[in-house]
Amino acid sequence: MESMIFINGSLLPRQEAKISTLDRGVLYGYGLFETMRAYGGRVFRLHRHLERLTSAAQILGLASELAKYDVPGAIQRTMAANSLTEAWVRLTFTAGEGERRLAPPTVDSANLMIIAEKMVPPAPVSYLAGIKAALVRQRRNSQSPLSRIKSICFLENLIAFTEAAAMGAEEAILCNEQGYLAEGNASNLFFVHEEKLFTPSVSSGILSGITREAILELAPSLGFRTEEGEIKLEDFLSADEAFLTSTLREIMPIVQVDDKIIGPGVPGPITQSLMAAYRDLVREETTSAPQD
Question: Of the chain's two ends, which shows fewer C-beta atoms within 10 Å, N or C?
Answer without folding.
Answer: N
